[in-house]
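Re-running the complex after MR caught last week's input typo. The corrected sequence lines follow. Everything else is unchanged.
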Amino acid sequence: LAKTTQPISMDSYEGQEVNITCSHNNIATNDYITWYQQFPSQGPRFIIQGYKTKVTNEVASLFIPADRKSSTLSLPRVSLSDTAVYYCLVGDRGAGNMLTFGGGTRLMVKP
Amino acid sequence: GAVVSQHPSRVICKSGTSVKIECRSLDFQATTMFWYRQFPKQSLMLMATSNEGSKATYEQGVEKDKFLINHASLTLSTLTVTSAHPEDSSFYICSAPDRGGSSYEQYFGPGTRLTVT
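Corrected-run output:
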């Protein structure tokens, strides 16, 4: 499984755009990139998934360069409620594939 | 999206007793479920893969005789912590993949906080 590297923590302020970058140099051809959000004492929640270029949904955008060795999760106009740990995971979407979590990025949004 | 539930959400038990944690997929079938453990301020660590109709697969370093897993049906997996000790106190989370539709997502339960006294 490809290993991921993320910043341990980030600080931001309400209303700002936050970009969290994840490095995954050993990503395989069949691997997808998925981001999860976790609040304290809760299970992780799916945010977004992509394979290449750009993916956007109602909560975030995911930017993946052509070499796919990194990806950037973009959260537009964060609020206090976006304070959480964000995990970048890389893996094959094949049947039964488990997820290996890295350290995650602890985002603190300040007023 | 799909929903995964866990029960109980919080349990306190005495050292030496056993505790059972249930993980259910509420609106989809899951032939595979995963069990994770998370200590404070740490990431999730995969413990085992629960397979419906067959034995669970345990990650290296996880004692299969201590953490018993039973995947009784396509919507239920249970994790039993046998002879629990204070060092087993942790946050236990299950997940299940929903392979329906065009997106492949893992859905996580809300977690179970186990405290062993």
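None of the earlier attempt is carried over here. Chain A has a mean pLDDT of 92. Strands of chain A lie at 9-13, 18-23, 31-38, 45-50, 53-56, 61-64, 70-75, 84-92, 105-110.
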